[in-house]
Amino acid sequence: MSAATSIPRIPWGRAERCVETTLLELVAAVSDECESEAEVVATVLHLLGSGRARLCGSFRNASLRDLVRD
């Protein structure tokens, strides 16, 4: 198998379970696995936008736009 061989994508099913967490807990957990701040931000936004994670606590009603505002 050569290095140029593409690996087929495995389709993701619908999230059966949504993790409810605070923004701080989510960022801390993702930070443990990511190598850069940009990767943390992208992953957190993906988890929230896809519905795989839902915020509770102070940011429970915040939109994604509110979370990334400067």
Q: Record the strand order, biggest sheet.
A: 1-2
SSE sequence, one letter per element: EHHEH
Assign a percent range to the helix content: 40-55%
Radius of gyration: 15 Å
What would you call the structural class?
mainly alpha
The main β sheet shows up as: 2 strands, parallel
Structure description:
This protein has helices at about 25-30, 35-50, 65-70, and strands at about 20, 55. It has three helices and two strands, in the order βααβα. The chain is mainly alpha-helical and about 70 residues long. The longest helix has 14 residues, at about 35-50. The model has no long low-confidence stretch (mean pLDDT about 85). Helices cover about 40% and strands about 10% of the residues. The protein has one domain (about 20-70). A two-stranded parallel ribbon has the order 1-2.
Please describe the topology of this protein.
Layout (H helix, E strand, L loop, with lengths): L18 E3 L1 H9 L5 H14 L2 E3 L8 H5 L2
Parallel strand pairs: 1-2
Helix pairs in contact: 1-2
Summary keywords:
70 residues, mainly alpha, two-stranded parallel ribbon, 3 helices, 2 strands, 40% helix, globular
Short description:
The protein has helices at residues 23-31, 37-50, 64-68, and strands at residues 19-21, 53-55. It is mainly α and 70 residues long.
